[in-house]
Specification:
By secondary structure, the protein is α+β, with helices and mostly antiparallel strands. It folds into two domains: 222 residues, no CATH class; 95 residues, no CATH class. The chain has eight helices and 14 strands. Strand 3 and strand 4 form a beta hairpin.
């Protein structure tokens, strides 16, 4: 992802089968992003969220559109061991410098859309964002269980006290999937790079509130939903090769959903094995002269997103009916 490119993903968060992001937005999700003490360490590198704001960014009729936005920072130390000098060749020269590349994000809670903007060169990738968010969500989940157990036991006078393990069975830990949004033009371009497509794997992640898969896979997902699978996979395969034009069309249709991971497996025109997934055909848009002010940057990114929606480049579902009351409760936190 290049500096000043804006990409899009779906932030699909569930707490077991029944409950979703908005059910625990106030108690777990918002604190996971806004608690400045949360730090994920990987070797000599740390990841953190910084200056995160919870705001209303628009109104959708009478429904407020709420978002979390802020910086995702990779704080690290760059090290070198040698340099090149004309006439001398490679010269041993150890040095190090602190570096903190960052991305800016806007997580729209209504439809769990993530706008992810590379602020600097070497900005932390979407995968690092997802891993960090998952860790902080788990931290806040454990804190929530402790508070909830204490609160419930206060009211259980003369009744057997509840334990954290018992409550954890009622409220499973958060499971996060961050699925990049595909760009239609890029899908066609990548499919053309294949000489032969042997297999396409569609992985359906359970959505946040209501059915939001594409029309191409919605019926199958609905058929198997009574089984309550955490993941459902559809595989189309033929060792002799699938029809490329039809493959491109079905991939485009499937990618319109909010919750479908796609993996294409085949051979390139040189006969070498080739695999691509959502990351390779993720939609990205360059942002010229991005504002330095956070509020102005957030507004610009949302404006670009809305333009893509109106131009039918990105699919956005209306706020699910199940989310309206939850959003109304969240407005009180503003």
């Amino acid at each position: 992802m290049r500096q000043h490119d804006l990409s899009f993903a779906n932030f699909v968060l569930r707490f077991g089968i029944e409950e979703v992001l908005l059910d625990y937005a106030a108690d777990i999700v918002i604190p996971a992003f806004r608690d400045n003490t949360h730090v994920r360490t990987f070797g000599e590198t740390t990841f953190r969220f910084y200056n995160v704001r919870f705001t209303k960014i628009a109104d959708e009729g009478k429904v407020p559109v709420l978002a979390l936005s802020g910086h995702f920072i990779k704080d690290t130390v760059l090290k070198r061991q040698q340099i090149f000098r004309p006439g001398r060749g490679l010269v041993e020269d150890e040095a190090e410098i602190e570096s903190a590349p960052s991305s800016y994000f806007v997580l729209i809670l209504n439809y769990h859309r993530l706008l992810y903007f590379a602020e600097t060169a070497s900005a932390p990738p979407l995968e690092a964002f997802a891993t960090t968010a998952q860790q902080f969500l788990r931290l806040e989940y454990r804190k929530y269980l402790t508070r909830r157990v204490e609160r419930e036991n206060v009211t259980r006078r003369g009744v057997e006290r509840i334990t954290r393990d018992q409550l954890g069975k009622r409220i499973p830990p958060p499971v996060l999937s961050v699925v990049p949004v595909a760009g239609e033009d890029l899908i066609s371009e990548i499919v053309d790079r294949f000489r032969k497509i042997k297999q396409i794997r569609f992985k359906l992640v359970e959505p946040n509130d209501e059915l939001d898969a594409s029309a191409a896979v919605a019926a199958i997902e609905q058929t198997f939903r009574p089984l309550r699978p955490k993941r459902l996979e559809l595989i189309a395969s033929d060792p002799k090769g699938l029809d490329k034009a039809a493959s491109a069309q079905k991939i485009i249709e499937a990618s319109e959903g909010h919750n479908t991971e796609i993996l294409i497996d085949g051979e390139d025109h040189a006969g070498l094995s080739m695999k691509v997934d959502n990351e390779q055909f993720a939609l990205s848009v360059p942002i010229e002269d991005p504002p330095q002010d956070d509020a102005e940057l957030r507004a610009r990114l949302v404006q670009v997103y809305d333009h893509l929606v109106h131009a039918d480049k990105v699919r956005r579902l209306p706020t699910p009916a199940a989310a309206v009351e939850k959003l109304a409760r969240l407005v009180r936190l503003l």
